[in-house]
Amino acid sequence: MSVNNGEKEVLLDVQHLEVTFSNSKKHVFKAVKDANFQVYKGETFALVGESGSGKTTIARAIIRLNDTSNGEILFKGKKINGKLSKEDKKWVQRNIQMIFQDPAASLNERATIDYCISEGLYNFHLFKDEADRQRKVDEALNSVGLLPEHKSRYPHEFSGGQRQRVGIARAMIMEPEFIIADEPISALDVSIRAQVLNLMNKFKEERGLTYMFIAHDLSVVRYFADRIAVIHNGRIVEVAPSNELFHYPIHPYTRSLLQAVPMPDPEIEKAKVLKPYDQEKEDKSAETGGSLQEIKPGHFVFMAESERAEYEAIVAEMNKTAE
Amino acid sequence: MSEQGKNIILSVKDLEVKFKVRDRVLTAIRRISMDFEEGKVVAIVGESGSGKSVFTKTFTGMLEVNGEVSGGEIWFEGQDLTKIKKDSEWEKIRGKKIATVFQDPMTSLNPVKTIGDQISEVIIKHQGKSKTEAKKMAIEMMGKVGIKDPDKRYDEYPFMYSGGMRQRIVIAIALACRPRILICDEPTTALDVTIQAQIIRLIKDLSEEYGFTTIYITHDLGVVANVADVVAVMYAGQIIEYGNVDEIFYDSRHPYTWGLLSSLPQLGEKGEDLFAIRGTPPSLFEEVKGDAFAPRSNYAMKIDYEQEPPFFKVTDTHYAKTWLLDPRAPKVEPPAAVRELHARMQALTSKGGIYGER
Questions:
Q1: Are residues A40 and A137 in the same domain?
Q2: Which residue of A has its CA nearest to B340?
Q3: B203-230 b/e with 16+ CB inside 10 Å = b?
Q4: Which of A54, A84, A160, B244 is the S-S candidate for A88 at Cβ 3.0 to 4.6 Å?
Q5: Residue A262: its chain B contacts at CB < 8 A?
Q6: Same domain, A309 and A258
């Protein structure tokens, strides 16, 4: 079952999602406020924001680790949040896999690599016999550039980059359609990051995977994502195709994020004047309420009605400079 | 790498550090010599495991229990710090003369003590001030690091502060004793880019105001470009290139530095593979023969596998530890990404460029 939006197939559809945390009836904290977005089949959709902005909470709501208090999450047209039958839960677990930020914390340190990678196979009985399982594990290890002889080792015997490869192999062996990668390279070194990103891109091409990529660093996402959603304080403030977002950022928060990316060039970096984002001053939706509006085809910005004219002026100005 | 006529605040000679890990010995620092010039911002860049944190931990006697300085000297104020054995002696240096700001502010603050008490405590201990005096100074310090309404926020607890605000407090605590050297160990890695930029700026402004020397440990070359006067690149327990910030970014000589600069995501083009340095760093449990980077380098020569290269001088301030600079070596050009770095960055940040002003 699938839903078509124009020509693109929608794999994941998030509508009016709200996630709240509370420690008593009085203190209710809205971590995610009215989130709306679609992830199309075969694309890499990035969710970018600072820590505490709610990006991981959205991911955890999708894989059913966080309860949702409002809204719907549809995967291949089927509602996957709230109450589900046992079978449906299994279906979600099998088809949506997650790659975590810290590979050291997400692998069982007392289990061998062989077990870490096969855990999903065991849970879902996805192999005919022992030989078949071995073959699958060997293949998964090979595909991430590790060797079958690594199977008997333990996670602590590997470097951070290698452990992240194990984390990827563990997700890939399930042959999922959709992978959520939560800051998969933040804990890795610069020289290893590129290796892991290239590996993830290879899988995307070979297997037609769909990724939701969570990051706080826009410079990584530019290279990797097809579309980007920027989230601030639990609210998605801008969604646009990657190139569009970088060339025509409209929301003041996106602009300040872009400007703050540190550039590896002393002359430029030392001359930089910072313009931090001041929500109280620049966001008028607090008083009048706002919503995500399409300002250009495929480009959505969260705004109050009173801000529309201002943002449209920005678009007009940018179109002029582009010509 | 010592130069005459400069005011050297800390001088490291032939430093070697070893760790015992389950019956095996790991050499984390392999004979580093380096002088730190007073008042400068020195950035130490390297991957995790390259030894950059271990290196600076030896300045304050903070090595883990299984680690020891197995050779060399560290000279500071006429004293060889490697000779210090007692913790009471370290207390005269650590925190007081050489202070450190760590990566995660939450782990360096006490969660059940108020912010104000944690700053005053340091002032009382190291400067012998009375409680009321210390409070006054602490509030002043909080204002300096950019906390609004410091007298109101004095009695709050760390959890009531955001990540960026907590890191500001850690900086206030570190500076409360007016140290001569401030070591910043990945101070902004746990923070978001917009907050990161503010913290970097704060440390820079304070260093100018108080005149302390900053040692900045990071793996982020964007941060380095912003803060550093001098850059030391570390690999496998050694400094492999050293120079003024412009020399490292615009005229680097070591293949590892080239690799680091080429693999920056800011340079990535959509649809192409990002440049990746192949392989992984060597295990420091075994003795490293020759140039430690040789197995991963595209420029390795036969001698790189046999003999460790010395430091070759590029300019009076710029040195690199690679055989490529030997007069007998074939002449090689740095990769295009490195040669064109400045031009590409300028295009990206000029008006209309994606990171540019709008």
A1: yes
A2: A265
A3: bbebbeeeebbbbbbbbbbbbbbbbbeb
A4: A84
A5: 193, 196-197, 220, 222-223, 225-226
A6: yes
Distance from CA of B129 to the nearest CA of A (A): 37
Q: Do A262 and B193 touch (CB under 8 A)?
A: yes
At B65, list the tokens. 């229990």
List the single residue in B with minimal CA-CA distance to A321: B352
- In this structure, are A168 and A298 located in the same domain? no
Task: Tell whether B225 is within 8 A of chain A (Cβ).
Answer: yes
Q: How far is CA B100 from the centre of its chain?
A: 11
Which of A247, A268, A289 delimits the end of a domain?
A247
Instruction: Please name the member of B194, B346, B349 whose beta carbon is closest to the beta carbon of A260.
Output: B194
**Cβ–Cβ under 8 Å, residues B119 and B141:** yes
- Best B45, B248, B263, B339 residue to mutate vs chain A (most A CBs within 10 Å): B263
Interchain proximity B222–A264, CB inside 8 Å: yes
Q: How far is B104 from chain A (nearest CA, A)?
A: 13
Residues linked to residue B233 through DSSP beta bridges, in sequence order: B45, B241
Cβ-based neighbours of B88, under 8 Å, separated by 6 or more? none
Q: Residue A246 and residue A261: Cα distance in Å, rounded?
A: 12
Cβ contact, residue pair B355, A222, below 8 Å: no
Of A190, A225, A247, which residue constitutes the final position of a domain? A247
A189 and A314 fall within a common domain? no
User: A234 and A278 share a domain?
Assistant: no
Q: Are residues A241 and A264 in the same domain?
A: no
Structural domain including A316 reads 248-323
Q: Are residues A260 and A173 in the same domain?
A: no
Q: What are phi and psi of A215, to 5 degrees?
A: -155, 160
pTM tops 0.90: no
Same domain flag for A135 and A221: yes
Q: How many domains does chain A have?
A: 2
